[in-house]
Structure formats: structure tokens, C-alpha cells
Predict the structure.
Amino acid sequence: MTWDEAEYVDYLQSERRAYAWVMEHHGGLTPQEASQAALEHYPYEPAETSFRGLVFHDEAWHWAMLSIHGAQYTVDRPELAHPSPGYLALDD
């Protein structure tokens, strides 16, 4: 996918916000720890980076749940297979 810089940065910030929300509300991190985790998971990638934004192929909910509960989270915790209403409300 080709992004113009503004689109990429907007999407990056949105995914960081969503990831941090999950890490705080479901992972028990403080707001500062959750923000740091989001920055580490979603680093800025320069425009010339191959496959820039590949991390966006799954939503932040999934990446955060993998971090919190591991690869089998949908089996071990099927209620977490889909984003919570609070997470979905972030887009409103």
C-alpha cells in the first residue's frame, strides 16, 4: 500500500492509541507504560522502508492481545477473540 505521509502518521497514531488503550484496560499497564508499549510496537517507519506499515495488517486489538495473553488467546480466552465495546468506541 502506498501512503502519503499525513495518512501514514494519522493511522500510526490511531493504532498506537488503540494498542495503548488495550494494554491499559486489559493488560493492567499504567497509561505511561501503555503509551511506551504502543511506541515500541508501532515505531515510525520512514517512507522508503520496505513494507512500511505491514503491522497494520491486523488491528491493534489483536497485537495487544498477543502481547498480553499469547498466541493461543482466541482458544484460551474466546471472549477476547473480538474487540470489546470500549475498544470499538475509540473510533466514535
